[in-house]
Specification:
CATH architecture: 3-Layer(aba) Sandwich
Strand order of the largest sheet: 2-1-3-4
Number of domains: 1
Largest sheet: 4 strands, mixed
CATH topology: Glutaredoxin
Helix content: 40-55%
Radius of gyration: 17 Å
Distance between the termini: 49 Å
Number of helices: 5
Oligomer: single chain
Shape: globular
CATH class: Alpha Beta
Number of strands: 4
Structural class: alpha+beta
Strand content: 15-25%
Amino acid sequence: MKGRISLNMFSKLFKKEKKLNIDFCMKNLDRFLTDENLKSYESFMSQKNIQYKEFECQSRCKECKTSPYAIVNGEFIAANDSQELLDKLRQIRDGSYAAKS
């Protein structure tokens, strides 16, 4: 059938972006977020498929003191530094993140 786009092809062209719900601990952000990557975080968080909340405390004191983290769609994600955390958040957004066991 010439001139007709299959529904499957149409779906691929306009793939729905996965919505990410990201929770941050304000104390953790204060501890690990640097001035150098603040603009990168702001740019990432302003995307339409990203929703985020900052909580004063998430009662994860042990993790909070040792590394930057975020809770993404209910999953705890930690990193060695704030840039690595942002890289992981981007990978999750893009569907290429593989959690290390």
